Amino acid sequence: MEKFASYLDQINRSVGMTARWFALAMVLLQFGVVLLRYVFGFSSIALNESVLYLHSALFMLGAGYTLLIDDHVRVDIFYSGLGRPGKARIDAFGHSLLLLPSMVALLYWSWPSVRNSWAIWEGPLSVGGIPALWLMKSLIPAFCILLIIQSLACLLRQLITLKVSDNHSEEGPAV
Question: What is this structure's pTM?
């Protein structure tokens, strides 16, 4: 199970290492947009939309990596005071009954919109924008799939932790 979880981790690690460059590209592009507008008096809707596309890609493709490195938002009211088995139970509950079902539902309900967008090669958000809204909508299923992959990896690790803690509790105290 650990080997399979590591394989799943590698998928999000690879995507995350690529997506992080979108942040630099987004900052540089936004700087260029501001420079062009206020120094040279040139404005482009497509350039403005490209910042939006990069931001969307960064967020949607980076979510699985954020879960991998455990850097997502967590409310630690009860969680922080628990031991490893208690945290593993909460995480296993969250992955199996909250995150996985919600990502499957989002994937299911968003797919017709994404499919239709691809079927008509849906155009820009605004006149003069990037004629590839279909590409941005494709980030929704990618987001779902990457989070499902990482959630499965995390769930496997929590189950391993729970199994190990159960084995230690069955052995009793050391003599």
Answer: 0.88
